[in-house]
Amino acid sequence: MPPSKGLSTTAKIGIGVGAGLIALLGGGYVAGHFLAGENLPVKSSVNGVQLGGLNSAQAVAKLEKELAAASAAPISVKAGDESMSLKPAEAGLAVDYEASVAQAGGGSSWNPVHLLTVLFGGAEQAAVLKVDQAKLNAAVDALAAKVDVEPVNAGVAYSGLKPVVSDAKAGVAVDRAATRAAIQAAYLKAEPVTAPLATAEPAVTTTEAQDVADGLAKSAIGEAVTVSVADKGKLNLQPAAIAASLKFEPKDGSLVPSFDSKTLASQVAKQLSGLGLKQPKNAGYTISKGKPKVVPSVDGVGVDPEQLGAALVPVLSQASGRSASVEVSAQPAAVTTADVEQLGVKKVIGKFTTYFPGTAYRYNNIGKAAKLINGTFLLPGETFSMNQTLGKRTTAAGWMAGGAIDGGKIVERLGGGISQATTTTFNAIYFAGLKDIYHKPHSLYFNRYPVGREATLDWESVDMKFKNDSPYGVLLQASITGKTGSQGSVTVKVWSTKRYTIKSTTPVRSNYRAPGKTVYDDSDGCIAQSAMSGFDVKFYRLFYEGEKLLKKEPFKWSYNSLTPVVCGKDPAKKD
Fold first, then answer.
1. CA separation (Å) from 507 to 301, 422, 510, 536?
2. Of 411, 423, 434, whose CA–CA distance to 370 is shortest?
3. CA dist., res. 218 & res. 392, Å (int)
């Protein structure tokens, strides 16, 4: 027979053996697949729970049981001096058990790598979480509301004809993104979380404000500005009128000059009247027979104060020859009677009373301050200034000299005692929930005032300001009781529409400081003073809506000690 033209006998034998091995290995592979089934890898675990060898359903059930306590355990979160216990459900955190098991290797597959992993592998895995970002954000925001302190921009304002700088203050802010990540990482681990805090820098620094005070603020009141009023005549704006109505407001990181329209209108009203023009009068409120009463609006023909202010700003930096011009037009009242009737001046939302010794100067000065405060009406967004309301304290204006504090010593000064009215007003707006812009407690503590919650006043350097940050009108009512020789009281009420329930935490005193050694003074101008200890105090203003705490505002102050002064010669010293 002819030789075969196909494969050799050796080759055929090789193919046969190979086919047999493949068949044999294939049978083992199939057996391995069915042995592994849907089981998790033998060494698999999730958050320390061993799941190896269990199928997916068994693993899910075991994981739910073993992590039940940990998944519901509150998370302790601390931010600054504040702490809270956060329930996972409230923070939108839960375990996705099915996804956790799948990640650990649950499920069936013909992939040989999977089969080998099931039979011989596996590892510890972290649980997969379900995160409701809206709830987590809300939880972190609620914590931040208790801790965050808004930065305060430096400012420039006039005290008479002197530009005065108010210092910038850095704020504090919870790093929300980092805190959310830390809370998620701590879930299931029973680990406390410390929320990272960041310094919130003001947009305008004290140095920047000082540059404005030394530059533009001084040149702005360098000389008068002559304003041509169409064909009616001219206005002459003296430096005092400019200072009274010019303000510097933060904008794009700088202090920008502008004029307060209401104040500017009042500064030129008499001159405009002399030109035969009548400025409009906005509607407002006053106190009549102990209750709010609407003061109707009046339309006019005159100069738009906003246009006048805009015409004045470009000439403020000029050293001399300053002039501007404005047109005359019909001027309807910006705030009508109907407007103010809708502003919700309905009830007392804040009230405070303080008591004072019955000296004549106190009754005069505190009584005069109460009359000037009484009937003050603020539209939404307007700011109250105690110095602007009371004016400069002079004998001609009816103020008397009385006790005041200067440099840690008790001295006599015109308007002495009006810190009583200032403190009472501050506390009334404090409990009304209005925004504290600026106040400064006394350098020494007097127990007739609520500790830490007081406000002193000085025409040259210290004001008390608050802002009507509500959508409603705010009307102040102030009055005094008593007579000279007996204890008196001053009460301030805030009329508006209530937004919050305000509470104040108990003040915490610390770091007590002893007074200095007694000083003997035999000069004619000696004023005796008692020893006082100094200390620090801290407390919070709490804003509630019903039972829910919305915001926690920190306050703190350091009181100086007072060295005792005895009028007379030191008995320990010989003549």
1. 54, 20, 10, 10
2. 423
3. 20
CA–CA separation, 239 and 161 (whole Å):
7
Could you read off the pLDDT of 343-394 as tens digits, one per residue?
A: 999 999 999 999 999 999 999 999 999 999 999 999 999 999 999 999 999 9
C-alpha closest to that of 531 among 551, 514, 508: 514
Please say whether the beta carbons of 543 and 502 come within 8 A: yes
Per-residue pLDDT at 5 exceeds 80: no
Would you state the structure tokens that stand for residue 37, as one six-digit string?
Answer: 């089934």
Count of C-beta atoms within a 10 Å radius of residue 189: 12
Distant-in-sequence, close-in-space partners of 229: CB < 8 Å, separation ≥ 6: 235, 272, 275, 277, 303, 325, 326, 328
Q: Which two tokens stand for residue 228?
A: 């041509």
**CB-CB contact of 218 with 318 (8 Å):** no
Q: What is the rounded end-to-end Cα distance, in angstroms, of the chain?
A: 156
**Quick one: pLDDT at residue 19?**
42
Question: What is the DSSP secondary-structure string of 357-382?
Answer: ---HHHHHHHHHHHHHHTT-EE-TT-
CA distance 186 to 135: 16
- Reported residue count of the chain is 575
Cβ-count burial 368-392 (b if 16+ within 10 Å, e if not): bbbebbbbbbbbeeebbebbebbee
The CA dihedral of 406, 407, 411, 416, to the nearest 10 degrees, is 20
Rounded Cα distance between 336 and 333, Å, is 6
Q: List, for residues 219-238, the tens digit of each pLDDT value.
A: 999 999 999 999 899 999 99
Which 8-state DSSP code applies to residue 179?
H
Strands in 364-513 per DSSP E? 377-378, 383-385, 401-406, 409-414, 435-438, 465-467, 474-481, 488-496, 501-504, 508-513
Domains along the sequence of the chain with CATH: 18-201 (no CATH), 215-335 (3.10.20)
Give the tens place of pLDDT for each residue, 138-188.
999 999 988 999 999 999 999 999 999 999 999 999 999 999 999 999 999
Structure tokens at 17: 């053996």
Least Cα distance to 301 among 277, 272, 276 occurs for 277
Tell me the C-alpha distance between 359 and 376, whole Å: 27
- Residues 535 and 444: beta-carbon distance below 8 Å: no
Which are the contacts of 37, defined by CB distance < 8 A and separation ≥ 6? 55, 108
SS3 of residue 245 by DSSP: helix
